[in-house]
């Protein structure tokens, strides 16, 4: 994965030249819990200003699965301007979004879109733990602090989405990491969120979290009861709402 991440950074340096602010690894690769069988390689790229159509086309080609095969589940990469990274909003604007997972390969031009709310958490993780790939500005210089209310709102939005769209283990562990942030402001991986929650839950909830951790790590484990997952996520949303109020 390390060689692949460096190759992504080199591709971006070739594409953007001196306008490149930096290429930053984030997500489970820096927070922990990365598993090539199911984890994406998460990358944020910051450039000095808006990309040209020629740059967008070149980036899409250089990052494609054919040109740059990913050794993990896939690449998830967004390119944003320095201004967007310095002024986080509920829907940060982006220049280009590229994913290369086999079931979700796409290249999205962000110039005519309202922005991507997922970038709120990406910005926050990059600011706190992002790893600069190659030359560029350190992450704390490239990304301004993200207000806690924006982070909490996006964590809650992700949890609402999880209950109907994501695997049970993803929803449970995402609820754990959201709960952790609501308690002490720490942004951690889903796996670390689950481990943290085990000290606070017992009985059926404890078994639910332990099973979710096993499934997330691709260990033998029973199916999760959707009703139990929904209940656990609902409780986590309640805790976040209490903090936000």
UniProtKB/TrEMBL annotation:
It comes from the Bacteria. Keywords: Transferase. Residues 154-237 form the Adenylyltransferase AadA C-terminal domain. GO terms for molecular function: transferase activity. Gene3D superfamilies: Beta Polymerase, domain 2. InterPro entries: AadA_C (IPR025184), NT_sf (IPR043519). This is Adenylyltransferase AadA C-terminal domain-containing protein. It comes from Saccharopolyspora kobensis.
């Amino acid at each position: 994965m390390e060689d692949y991440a460096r190759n992504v950074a080199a591709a971006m340096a070739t594409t953007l030249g001196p306008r490149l602010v930096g290429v930053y690894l984030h997500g489970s690769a820096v927070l922990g819990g990365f598993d090539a069988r199911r984890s994406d390689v998460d990358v944020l790229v910051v450039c000095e200003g808006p990309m040209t159509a020629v740059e967008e086309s070149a980036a899409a080609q250089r990052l494609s699965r054919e040109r740059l095969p990913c050794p993990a589940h896939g690449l998830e990469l967004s390119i944003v301007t320095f201004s967007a990274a310095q002024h986080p909003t509920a829907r940060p604007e982006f220049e280009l979004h590229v994913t290369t997972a086999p079931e979700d390969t796409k290249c999205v031009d962000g110039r005519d879109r309202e922005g991507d709310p997922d970038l709120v958490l990406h910005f926050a993780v990059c600011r706190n733990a992002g790893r600069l790939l190659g030359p560029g500005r350190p992450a704390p210089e490239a990304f301004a602090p993200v207000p806690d209310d924006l982070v909490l709102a996006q964590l809650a939005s992700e949890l609402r989405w999880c209950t109907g769209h994501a695997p049970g283990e993803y929803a449970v562990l995402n609820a754990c990491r959201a709960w952790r942030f609501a308690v002490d402001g720490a942004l951690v991986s889903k796996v670390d969120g689950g481990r943290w929650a085990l000290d606070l839950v017992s009985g059926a909830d404890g078994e639910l979290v332990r099973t979710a951790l096993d499934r997330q790590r691709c260990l033998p484990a029973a199916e999760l009861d959707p009703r139990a997952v929904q209940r656990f996520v609902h409780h986590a949303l309640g805790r976040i709402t209490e903090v936000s109020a």
